[in-house]
Each structure stands twice: as structure tokens, then as C-alpha cells.
Amino acid sequence: IDPKIILALGRISGGVLIGNLDAKLKDMRNRVLKYKNRLLFVTYHPSALLRNPSYKRPTWEDVQLVQKYYNEVT
After folding, report:
1. Hey, which of 15, 27, 35, 45 would disulfide with 40, CB 3.0 to 4.6 Å?
2. With contact defined as beta carbons under 8 Å apart, do 15 and 21 qualify?
3. DSSP labels, 2-24
4. Which long-range contacts (CB under 8 A, 24 or more apart) does 26-30 make?
């Protein structure tokens, strides 16, 4: 597997990939990050969406951003 884009779900997975476990989710969202030679995006974890339905709209916007970059690299 050699993905061009990675979508990390949650603060922990995003922090592990960028090498900063103290990073806040709000600082990782809505940004194009790098993991090695790949594009990295971070959004809410699915369990957060179940606990807080108001996160659904921002998550959808994050997925649309991923889709935009996906269309560019393919």
C-alpha cells in the first residue's frame, strides 16, 4: 500500500503521524499536513461524532477538503 493521502481520525492518530502528541485537534484540522511524502488530513474521531452531533458539519467540510486534494493527485 502506498497511499498519496491519509485521513487521520482523531487527535491521537493525527498527533502520532505528525510526531507531536501534544498537538490540539483544532490546530491540525483544516490544514494540509505532511507525513513523509504523503498529504495528511486530520478530522474528528467517529466516537466524537456520536457524542457530539454538532461535529458532523466540520467533519463533512474536512472530507470535502480531502476530496478536493484527492481529485488533484489522481
Report:
1. 35
2. yes
3. --SEEEEESHHHHHHHHT-TT--
4. 29/58, 29/62, 30/61, 30/62, 30/65
- Extract long-range pairs of 57-61: CB within 8 Å, 24+ residues apart: 58/29, 61/30
In single-letter form, the type of residue at position 74 comes to T
User: What is the reported pLDDT for 68?
Assistant: 97
Residue type, 56: K
Question: Is residue 74 predicted with pLDDT exceeding 90?
Answer: no
SS3 1: coil
pTM of the model as a whole: 0.94
29-66 pLDDT tens trace? 999 999 999 999 999 999 999 999 999 999 999 999 99
**Side chain identity at residue 30, one-letter code:** N
